[in-house]
Amino acid sequence: MSSAACRRVLRAAGSSAAGPPPCSSSALRSWVATSTSRCAPRRGLSAAGSINVFNRDMKKRQKNWAAALRDGHQYDYLRDEVGSRVADRVYDIARTFPLALDIGAGKSHIAEHLSKDVVERLFLTDVSEETLKQTRRSEIPTHRILADEEFLPFKENTFDLVLSSLSLHWINDLPGALKQIHQALKPDGVFIGAMVGGETLYELRCSLQLAETEREGGFSPHVSPYTAVTDLGNLLGRAGFTMLTVDIDEVQVHYPGITEVMTDLQGMGESNCAWNRRSMLHRDTILAAGAIYKEMYGNEDGSVPATFEVLYMIGWKPHESQVRPVCAQIPRVQQCIKQ
To answer: Most buried among 63, 74, 247, 332, using CB within 10 Å?
Structure first.
């Protein structure tokens, strides 16, 4: 990542329900909001249970390796930005949370944007021990716990607030993880999370697929599958959450070329860890993918965009004090719905 020193934020993306396109800037890597649609494979989720898509041990090793990098802080730009937007959603709720939990906290990218007036005490969990060692200082009293997001070690009705930023997309059993979060919350507690969605890195995915098909006569997945926004509301509802809010941000980062995109993903600990991944890319294929990337998506200045679709979700654990929809308070309407 040669040009990290000159990366700067040009413009923060607002919430939108659309997709991405063009770009701008070369050595500078800039944040831009965009919109358009395109095709991208979705992560498969079955109603019956989980699908073992990801090698969790591999993901732990990737995150530990990234955390051990001497210049690892320069790869935190995406997590820092999304963490601040999750914190903004916490401030939108007019209450103080005595006890909160951050799942997949990393280096504490959310807590640094919060004050102790909003969160009085915070538990940070992550699957990576090396990452937890580098958690940033915060005015909030924090406790670090090494724990897998798929197996939360907390009792029911413990937390007033549960947070998660850019971690849930690596979980095999997402419905099960959401149910565990729901159980850990106290009644009238709230879950606020962010995860990357199905349109993420569509430029990289398409370029690699076309290059492999051309050079090797077929392609294998090099970008992990992600959850589609259309599935997220259903998953939250099935986990028991009410008063749901799901919205989308798109962040587009500009890089000198495909090599820098892949280097930064590795530095973030965001390399593919799917069981069916291919461990090696041929040099010719990478060169061809880089050329296709610039031809299909490149900017006039020679840079290429990488789009991150971020899905934000808010869900509440039911409590009798919460406002219910009008139809839920009318017996006749309830009977009609059941019929």
So the answer is: 63
